[in-house]
Amino acid sequence: MAAKILIVTGDAAESLEVFYPYQRLREEGYEVHIAAPTRKTLQFVVHDFVDGFDTYTEKPGYTWPADLAFGEVDPAEYAALVLPGGRAPEYLRNNPEVQRIVTHFFELDKPVAQICHGPLITLAAGSLTGRRTAAYPALEPDVLAGGAGFEDGEAVVDGVLVSARAWPDHPGWMRAFIEVLRDKAPVD
Question: Domain named DJ-1/PfpI: which ranges (predicted)?
């Protein structure tokens, strides 16, 4: 039986930041589940950069069904956790079930991959204190206020935590995460 990886996300998550790790980890042989506030079809978004805009733009993205609700998650069944970005982390970070799930992975030193706005979740759970992380650059003040070190890099590795700035960092981010997984959470 293949090791399982959990993706915690919700509506308005960045499409690429959900689907790239979802497909890449399945390609490696992992069983991947998506957890959301409820079992429903999630509406993801596409963040893109347009000349003349001071920030990214947001357009409707793909839809995808959540495999389970946060309250149904037994984190002990999962070898690793992925936290995509987009706008979902800003409302998920205060969910007590999300904090329960995240805390489990950090307390047991299980691999965690986070990207873009994903660190908003680990910051709210108090799991980044004393760690180094990448994040979407606008989150640097949040990362520093949460007691973590901010690094502007495509694949920042701090123990079993692997982080990146945004979807353009996918190749480096997933390459580094898979190296951690092969060491700490092999497929089977």
Answer: 4-179
How many C-beta neighbours within 10 Å does residue 34 have?
Answer: 20
Q: How do residues 51-62 score in pLDDT, each as one tens digit?
A: 999 888 899 999
What whole-number distance in Å separates Cα of residue 99 and Cα of residue 54?
A: 32
Gap between the Cα atoms of 153 and 147, Å rounded = 18
Residue-number span of the structural domain to which 9 is assigned: 4-184
Q: Is the pLDDT assigned to residue 188 strictly greater than 90?
A: no
d(CA 115, CA 161): 11
Whichever domain contains 82, its CATH number is: 3.40.50.880
**Could you confirm whether 47 is annotated as catalytic?**
no
User: Tokens 């959301």 identify what position?
Assistant: 36
What pLDDT score does 57 carry? 87
**pTM for this predicted structure:** 0.97
Please state the length of the chain.
Answer: 188
Candidates 124, 171, 178; CA nearest to 147 is: 124
Angle 15-27/170-184 helices, nearest 10 degrees?
40
Looking at the structure of the chain, the number of domains it has is 1
Q: Which of 33, 104, 117, 170 is catalytic?
A: 117
